Amino acid sequence: MRKNISILVSLLILSLTACSDKGQYFEESGSVFHTSYHIKYKAKQILTDKIDSELQRFNLSLNPFNPNSTIAKVNNNEDVEVDEWFTEVFIKAEEISKKSGGAFDITCAPLINLWGFGFSKMDSVTPQMIDSIKAFVGYQKVRLEGKKIIKEDPRILLNCSSIAKGYACDVIARLLEKEGVKNYMVEIGGEVTMKGVNQQGDCWRVGINKPEIGTSGVTNDVEEIVQLCQKGGVATSGDYRNFYIKDGKKYAHTINPATGYPAGQNILSATIVAEDCMTADAYATTFMVLGVEKAKLLAQSIPQIEYFIIYADNNGQQKVTYSKGMLEYLPNRKLIIYSQEGTHIAEVAKDHFMLLAQNTNHKVIASAPTRLILIHAGSLSDMIINDPEWNVEKPVVLPIPPALAHTLNQIEYYMKDKYFTLN
To answer: What is the pTM (predicted TM-score) of this model?
Structure first.
């Protein structure tokens, strides 16, 4: 394991505040599980050794690339009792496999290896090879009895990489909380668990990269910002980083357990917000397998998750869609609307307001707005939107039906229902 440690204060400040009850922010980074990690937290003292020890323990549990790990021993059919971390991940994986109809399946390891994305690689793939492997792939063919994994076929292999990184974030978060840490952000391989505020006192923010549709590489442009002001997990899965080109065709790492082939769906990137990162991580992969419409349908039955999907339409153009509850975590898309008197009316999507402005022939130029003021005219026959933070070419007037032009409450209700209802 490689690690780098940087203390976010000078040595002078460190010496002056070492005994302070308020603590200070530390930042640690390194590599684990063949990926990088970055951890920021506020504590009375640096916790490097404890974090490193926890990561080493986790490495010996769920890292399939480590021949001494529990999961490697399970895959080798050794007589081994699984630990509490393996158990928790296995139970969660089984739960999501059932809810997704098998779209999420940790027994896909042989197929992942076959396509060259796992811990063992093959040079070529044929339909016959896929069919032969599918005979011993399926989450129903493996179960947990006490502390033992029981396989229906000894060739079954487990790969928890689509859930373990998120769970590792949760494990480190638990450690930090056990040490009294209330403000932290733990990122491992792009999956994040966060709580509290950053060093500036603001809610933690993470970026969603804009996917590269072509085959020439990946851009680092940020498509969207996700902000969490309470404890939660954020995970993104995409086929734009881990892929290869063979004979002019792109093969991406997300494998559909039902077909045995790369999923090849229209989703370019799926970001999930959940109460914990393990759940977010697993559902991000599940969405990549299902595609946009089936993923959205699944999400309706799981109120504990919110999603932000970047996809390609039939013309190859990038589009986005997100759940209604996701708006809470998208500061660059959220407008908080108040009346002139300061009454809170609604929180709405910026793109819906922009569409409204376009439809009313008013051009609005804005950069990451967070607030709108509704100023009602004397007759309450319309609402004029204005805000000093906005550069508005001319006031945006929202017509209000005369039948509703009586009380502010009626207008507020109409505004929410007519103009600012998410699809």
So the answer is: 0.77
